[in-house]
Each structure stands twice: as C-alpha cells, then as structure tokens.
Amino acid sequence: MFELLLIIYLLPVVIVAALLLRLALFLLKKTIMVALWVIRKSALLLKLLVVWLWNRTVRNRPLSQYP
After folding, report:
1. CA angle 59–65–67, rounded 5-degree value
2. Which keywords does this Swiss-Prot/TrEMBL entry list (predicted)?
3. How confident is the model at residue 12 (pLDDT cuts 50, 70, 90)?
4. Whole-number Å distance between alpha carbons of 14 and 21
C-alpha cells in the first residue's frame, strides 16, 4: 500500500522534473545559438569596419605618397 501511494505521489513530480529539464536544455541550446550568432555578426561587422577604414586611409592619400 505504501509503495502504491509513493508511486502515485512521485509520478507527477518526476514528470514535472523531466519537463523542467527539457525546458532548461532547450533554453541552453537556444542561448548558445544566439551567442554564436552574435559573435559571428560582430566579427563580420568588425571585418567590414577594418576594410572600410583601410580603404578610407589608403584612398585619401595624395598620389605622390605612392611608390
């Protein structure tokens, strides 16, 4: 009798714990994906900024400074 009551009371607790674990893993996966996306986009924007600054400095020099 005690075992049956224990199973009846623990079954919802186990189900809720499993659902919370799935939610935590889902949120962790999405957080990592967003972080990687932000890193990739930041690197791309940094590359574009470096290219833009390089072109701006090289093209603004007078022709006498070129070898």
Report:
1. 105
2. Membrane, Transmembrane, Transmembrane helix
3. very high
4. 10
Tokens of 56: 């701006």
Residues 46 and 5: their CA atoms lie apart, in Å, by 62
Residue 62 pLDDT: 63
Task: Tell me the residue type at 47.
Answer: K
Q: Summarize pLDDT for 37-64 with one digit per residue, the tens.
A: 999 999 999 999 999 888 888 877 665 6
Q: How many CA atoms lie within 13 A of 50 on its CB side?
A: 6
User: CA–CA separation, 39 vs 56, rounded Å?
Assistant: 25
